[in-house]
Fold:
Amino acid sequence: MLNVLVIDDKKPIIDMIERLLSAHHINVISANNGLAATELLHHHSVELIICDHLMPIMNGLKFVENYFSHNPSPKPVIFMTTQDIKAVGQLPELKLVTDIFAKPLDLEHLEMRVKEILSLNTAVKVL
Structure:
């Protein structure tokens, strides 16, 4: 079973994404801030990270910056934000993320992107 890490301080968002992904036999591991997510990554391997922008303790930008600077083979990251998506997309911390989604989420589009990304990861592993 594939693992996806969902990082969001809003439990209903985590639950909604978990319901969406569990229908595809994808296991969701969750954290409510970037620091907790960093700790989880020391104990779990994941194929994809879905990360919110604005969170307490360690926000999404700081998490993404830390994640990419400390992982020589990082997994894909989907970033979510309630802010202006074009402005957020220009931030240097986000240059390595796979995709950026505006909140409220378009669940159909998110589902499609997750499936595409995970299919690509699986294909690369086979090679």
